[in-house]
Write a structure and sequence with these properties.
Helix content: 10-25%
Largest sheet: 2 strands, antiparallel
Number of helices: 1
Strand content: 15-25%
Strand order of the largest sheet: 1-2
Oligomer: single chain
Radius of gyration: 14 Å
Distance between the termini: 18 Å
Number of strands: 2
Amino acid sequence: MEEMDLLEISAGETVAMAPGEMHVMADDIKNDWVPGDRLAVDLRFRDAGVEKIEVPVVDYVELADRLSGDDRPS
């Protein structure tokens, strides 16, 4: 896993994010989120403005267990 401050996406390019692959991780958050909650996230693009999306809250340990071995998404 590599931390990034900026993800450059060229015009017309598509980037997919998924658990165990490229993803956004929030840690050290002081909130009462629980797995199953959905968060509103604003993605800010230099030229295209703001895109609003919803993302699920997942439990890290459960996700790691699920993605280990043969359970990894293809």
